[in-house]
């Protein structure tokens, strides 16, 4: 039996938190003196939300990213890591629980979104799950545009699956700033647990880190209790050095997650970009003690890719980053390939896509 | 563990590569192998065990080749060599092409066998070793195809004895065999006794590729077999392995006329400047010292980190080390495999046990059985610590810190070795400034352990000499066409019964550090003309004069950093001043040698011309940008060798002297040159020309004296980088033997004459002998 997935969004009451801290965490002077209301941990994990820090421009400007070296490391990763048999099946199930099952199309309708939510609740055929000896598998979240948030919230009610809304003038992020803030507030009001914002690429491209920091801060504040994922649109940032620096600035400004792409750029999540961003996450943790989440999005459509990303997170950041409060895939077609691989594991024969229920 | 449990633990689990096909192949040979001689396997003789170091399991019995076996392999190679050379480059190209294709077709078989035999992770044998093997045969198929057109003046050496190490068994085989057979040589190759099996599989593949019988011969065995090869009737020895054994081979082949290349040990520096991409530099260390369990001659084993980032660098490095996975080399999910043999494991263990500094062992699981050693970091060491100087040949990184770029260079070069170096910085100015200053054959900028057939690989100092790969690598397997005549000894003119004194005494001295110096010993020798006249006296230099001359030459380092244009100007100026005093030099030559006036004048004119030739070359012996298969460049830079000791030809007192000094100077070397022994006084006149030609002090040092007495002192001097001899005295053997002390390069005549007045007196070899090719890898991309 698989334990229920920890949630990114905290709905726990203060008294639950106290119980949790008493039971699971060593009580330090720090935790004793800190008022419980300031801690926003996720149930089961005790994860402290990223409060951000002052913009440290010296640190930002010192960050380097050597493209060739990063590409070489990324290129050797598939050769260095391999998971087979039961391990592969388990890892693929884990990947499902990390998927932000996504639809971001102009032709989305409530019916389409309800179908997606139903799939999020039951991502894998029951007979396959039975054969694997697991139950309770759902996707990590469902990710939609603002207009679809109420439908999704309704469709997922009781499932514990959070609703994520893309926001701030997604995907270009060039609508009026006050409207972008208002969009966040509207989505939160509509019941979104997570907000995926897009940054202003121009601030990165012109090296205006202060502007990027201020923007991110404002977005984070507008999110309130909802967790915020900062989409860097790495395919439009020009260099990996920019990716590394933008990652750092967004974390300093309080991002709960950093995310590669909108899925609408010509280049979306890649391993070199991911390596650059997870190294920034590691450096931020090293300096602040705060764990920030990572979400590659766009272009991850094969089960094999998902395994690779899991290995990347495990090796570069550690096992803690294999849980949905710190890692998500932004993907729409990945689930289908994973389903077929799981059936292959169960039956020993290659599967066909029509054998698995549509989203 | 069931799926549900793994879902919670998220462990990797086993991912073994199957060894079934390899086991079937071993079984098909009944796990007993003979030698591969003359295109067929011999019946197994006395055998030894080849084991899998990860499990201790015996894989096969391999024959210990006897000296007789080696002799018959050499005979087979000798018989095959003529026809193979005559077949032509284009015919050979097809055979090498077939070998490349077959290595690819059997790639997994080779990879799995290599991993079983050596203990290296399957990832490395599959993704690195075997693809590089195929690449090497492809590249040299191309070299064979182009040989007739591009290397028309050169011919194969003959039969090559090749001895390779256990760390990259098949790759080192390819590095040795591909260039050798491409150029029309035949080979007798001995794999290391720990790792013979892929060489034997390769022998089978040779038959499939249509390699003619006897062109490739594989003899297995331990060091005794190696000794037999070194002592056999071969024309060349190519060795890759330890410096200690390399030194013994240098001594054993001294004076035999066998060509020799050595690729030996290293303690390669890995420099990280404070503006580097730290995480990438750390990942680079994984490729540097935890690649192949650190059993890599060019491993970046000496970490030099700039002080300001040292603390965070070491902390992050330790975290990265903890993530390395040790285990079954056949598992597709491990980073570090098994040490090749319990003997090697013991050596590593003992070296680390005695270490000072902070020893950090990776917090990673180490298998209980088999030859495993955890990734280890030892920081806080000083250059004076033994582990900073001696090669460990295991997964152990040692390190210290530096303050400035200059200090980084100083620390990096504080070693007897000079194989490879790595530097990390995002500053292109710094990178391109530091790379040429590092004493090593290879420099990697923002990367490490990059190899390709097109890029030369090899060392300086006690890391050996010769290059493998690229056009420069072909020099080790070819020689200029033609058979030079024997050079007769040319003793000094004996004192006649009666002779007259010169009208006014002139004192010829030694020329050291730009000054005339009396010989340390205080002895001089009268020099007589063939007609019996006393022409003058020449100082008798001794070892202390060599010492002083070398010190002067070492102090004149600025010359090696000067531009080719400047060096050309000075060589032209020497020519100008020599020409102005041409009549005087012609008379001196006549007096010394008894040459006719016209002959003497011709020698002076040829000398002026020769200076012009090398002045012309001073700014034209260009390096190359190699076509390596990465986004980046591999620059082949021709660097001066350093300080070259020279024994000038006896027979041409002025032309010979100029012919050896000028090319060395043109390429930026400083020289200590011993003049013609019978006719020394042209050289002592010549230093006056140097004095008036703006040659900086110490760049040229001229000694007179006995070649036989000075040869061992010169060749044994540890601060001389190369010795050339064109002497008619029998000193080639002693020079090669004594050179083994610091493994300096030697270029000696083995009693063969050279036509100094002809093209041989200014052939291209003077350029290649006066330079070291340094390969600088610069991957780029933003």
From TrEMBL, chain A:
Swiss-Prot/TrEMBL catalytic activity: 2-deoxy-D-ribose 5-phosphate = D-glyceraldehyde 3-phosphate + acetaldehyde
Signal peptide limits: none
Pathway named in the protein's UniProt entry: Carbohydrate degradation; 2-deoxy-D-ribose 1-phosphate degradation; D-glyceraldehyde 3-phosphate and acetaldehyde from 2-deoxy-alpha-D-ribose 1-phosphate: step 2/2
Record bears the keyword Protease: no
GO cellular component, one term: cytoplasm
Transcription is among the record's keywords: no
SMART domains: DeoC (SM01133)
PANTHER family tied to this protein: DEOXYRIBOSE-PHOSPHATE ALDOLASE
Protein name per Swiss-Prot or TrEMBL: Deoxyribose-phosphate aldolase
Source organism (scientific name): Tranquillimonas alkanivorans
From TrEMBL, chain B:
Residue ranges of domain Aldehyde dehydrogenase in the record: 46-481, 527-751
Active-site residues annotated for this sequence: 263
A Pfam family: Aldedh
Molecular functions (GO terms): aldehyde dehydrogenase [NAD(P)+] activity
Cleavable signal peptide: none
UniProt cross-references to InterPro entries, sorted A to Z: Ald_DH/histidinol_DH (IPR016161), Ald_DH_C (IPR016163), Ald_DH_CS_GLU (IPR029510), Ald_DH_N (IPR016162), Aldehyde_DH (IPR011408), Aldehyde_DH_dom (IPR015590)
Keywords: Oxidoreductase
Similarity section: Belongs to the aldehyde dehydrogenase family.
Name of the molecule in the record: Aldehyde dehydrogenase (NAD+)
């Amino acid at each position: 039996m698989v334990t229920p997935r920890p949630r990114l969004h905290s709905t726990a009451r203060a008294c639950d938190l106290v119980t949790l801290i008493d039971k699971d965490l060593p009580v330090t002077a720090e935790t004793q003196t800190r008022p419980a209301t300031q801690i926003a941990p996720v149930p089961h994990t005790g994860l402290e939300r990223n409060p951000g820090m002052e913009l440290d421009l010296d640190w930002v400007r010192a960050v380097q990213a050597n493209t060739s070296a990063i590409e070489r490391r990324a290129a050797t990763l598939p050769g260095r890591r391999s998971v087979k048999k039961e391990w592969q099946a388990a890892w693929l199930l884990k990947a499902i629980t990390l998927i932000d099952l996504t639809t971001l199309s102009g032709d989305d309708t409530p019916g389409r979104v309800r179908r997606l939510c139903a799939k999020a609740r039951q991502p894998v055929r029951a007979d396959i799950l039975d054969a694997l000896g697991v139950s309770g598998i759902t996707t990590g979240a469902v990710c939609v545009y603002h207009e679809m948030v109420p439908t999704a919230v309704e469709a997922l009610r009781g499932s514990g699956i959070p609703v994520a809304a893309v926001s701030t003038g997604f995907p270009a992020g060039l609508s009026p700033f006050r409207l972008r803030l208002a969009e966040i507030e509207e989505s939160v009001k509509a019941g979104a647990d997570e907000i995926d914002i897009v940054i202003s690429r121009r601030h990165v491209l012109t090296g205006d880190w202060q502007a990027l920091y201020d923007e991110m801060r404002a977005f984070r504040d507008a999110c309130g209790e909802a967790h915020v994922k900062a989409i860097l649109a790495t395919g439009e940032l020009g260099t990996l050095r920019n990716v590394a620096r933008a990652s750092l600035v967004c974390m300093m400004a309080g991002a709960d997650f950093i995310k590669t792409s909108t899925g609408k750029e010509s280049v979306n999540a890649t391993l070199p970009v991911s390596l650059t961003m997870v190294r920034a996450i590691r450096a931020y943790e090293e300096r602040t003690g705060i764990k920030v989440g990572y979400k590659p999005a766009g272009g991850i459509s094969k089960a094999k890719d998902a395994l690779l990303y899991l290995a990347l997170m495990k090796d570069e950041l550690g096992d803690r980053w294999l849980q949905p409060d710190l890692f998500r895939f932004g993907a729409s077609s990945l689930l289908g390939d994973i389903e077929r691989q799981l059936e292959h594991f169960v039956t020993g024969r290659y599967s066909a896509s029509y054998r698995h229920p549509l989203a | 563990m069931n799926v549900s449990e793994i879902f919670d633990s998220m462990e990797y689990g086993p991912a073994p590569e199957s060894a079934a096909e390899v086991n079937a192949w071993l079984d098909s040979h009944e796990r007993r192998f003979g030698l591969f001689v003359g295109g067929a396997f011999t019946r197994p003789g006395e055998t030894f065990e080849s084991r899998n170091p990860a499990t201790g399991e015996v894989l096969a019995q391999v024959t210990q080749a006897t000296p007789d076996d080696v002799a018959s392999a050499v005979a087979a190679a000798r018989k095959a060599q003529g026809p193979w050379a005559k077949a032509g480059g284009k015919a050979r190209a097809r055979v090498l092409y077939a070998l490349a294709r077959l290595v690819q077709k059997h790639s997994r078989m080779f990879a799995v066998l290599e991993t079983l035999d050596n203990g290296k992770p399957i990832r490395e044998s599959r993704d690195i070793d075997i693809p590089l093997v195929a690449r090497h045969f492809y590249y040299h198929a191309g070299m064979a195809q182009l040989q007739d057109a591009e290397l028309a003046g050169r011919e194969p050496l003959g039969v090559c004895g090749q001895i390779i190490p256990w760390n990259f068994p098949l790759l080192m085989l390819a590095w040795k065999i591909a260039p050798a057979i491409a150029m029309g040589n035949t080979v007798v190759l001995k794999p290391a006794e720990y790792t013979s099996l892929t060489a034997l599989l390769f022998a089978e593949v040779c038959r499939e590729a249509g390699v003619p019988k006897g062109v490739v011969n594989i003899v297995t065995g331990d060091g005794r077999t190696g000794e037999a090869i070194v002592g056999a009737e071969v024309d060349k020895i190519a060795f890759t392995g330890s410096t200690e054994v390399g030194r013994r081979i240098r001594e054993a082949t001294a004076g035999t006329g066998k060509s020799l290349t050595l690729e030996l040990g290293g303690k390669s520096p890995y420099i990280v400047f404070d503006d580097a991409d730290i995480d990438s530099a750390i990942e680079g260390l994984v490729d540097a010292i935890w690649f192949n369990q650190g059993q890599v001659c060019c491993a970046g084993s000496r970490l030099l980190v700039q002080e300001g980032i040292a603390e965070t660098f070491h902390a992050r490095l330790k975290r990265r080390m903890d993530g390395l996975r040790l285990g079954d080399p056949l598992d597709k999910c491990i980073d570090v495999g098994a040490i090749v043999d319990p003997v090697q494991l013991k050596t590593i263990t003992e070296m680390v046990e005695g270490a000072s500094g902070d020893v950090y062992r990776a917090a990673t699981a180490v298998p209980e059985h088999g030859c495993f050693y955890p990734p280890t970091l030892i920081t806080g060491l000083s250059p004076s610590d033994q582990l900073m100087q001696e090669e460990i040949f295991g997964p152990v990184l040692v390190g210290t810190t530096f303050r400035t770029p200059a200090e980084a260079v100083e620390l990096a070069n504080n070693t007897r070795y000079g194989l490879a170096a790595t530097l990390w910085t995002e500053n292109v100015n710094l990178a391109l400034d530091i790379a040429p200053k590092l004493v090593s054959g290879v420099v990697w900028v923002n990367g490490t352990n990059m190899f390709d057939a097109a890029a030369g690989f090899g060392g300086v100092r006690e890391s050996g000499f010769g290059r493998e790969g690229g056009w420069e690598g072909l020099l080790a397997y070819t020689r200029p066409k033609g058979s030079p005549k024997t050079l007769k000894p040319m003793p000094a003119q004996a004192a006649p019964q009666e002779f007259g004194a010169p009208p006014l005494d002139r004192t010829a001295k030694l020329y050291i550090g730009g000054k005339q110096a009396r010989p340390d010993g205080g002895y001089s020798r009268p020099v007589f003309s063939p007609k019996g006249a006393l022409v003058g006296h020449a100082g008798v230099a001794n070892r202390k004069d060599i010492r002083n001359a070398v010190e002067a030459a070492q102090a004149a380092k600025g010359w090696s950093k000067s531009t080719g244009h400047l060096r050309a100007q000075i060589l032209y100026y020497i020519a100008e001043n020599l020409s102005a005093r041409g009549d005087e030099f012609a008379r001196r030559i006549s007096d010394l040698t008894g040459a006719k006036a016209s002959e003497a004048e011709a020698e002076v004119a040829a000398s002026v011309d020769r200076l012009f030739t090398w002045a012309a070359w001073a700014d034209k012996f260009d390096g190359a940008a190699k076509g390596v298969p990465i986004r980046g460049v591999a620059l082949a830079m021709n660097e001066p060798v350093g300080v070259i000791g020279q024994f000038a030809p006896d027979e041409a007192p002025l032309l010979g002297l100029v012919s050896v000094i000028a090319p060395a100077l043109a390429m930026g070397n400083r020289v200590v040159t011993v003049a013609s022994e019978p006719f020394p006084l042209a050289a002592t006149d010549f230093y006056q020309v140097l004095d008036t030609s703006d040659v900086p002090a110490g760049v040229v040092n001229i000694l007179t004296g006995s070649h036989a007495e000075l040869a061992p002192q010169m060749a044994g001097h540890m601060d001389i980088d190369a010795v050339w001899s064109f002497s008619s005295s029998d000193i080639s053997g002693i020079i090669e033997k004594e050179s083994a002390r610091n493994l300096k390069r030697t270029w000696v005549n083995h009693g063969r004459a050279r036509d100094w007045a002809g093209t041989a007196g200014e052939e291209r070899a003077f350029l290649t002998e006066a330079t070291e090719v340094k390969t600088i890898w610069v991957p780029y991309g933003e």
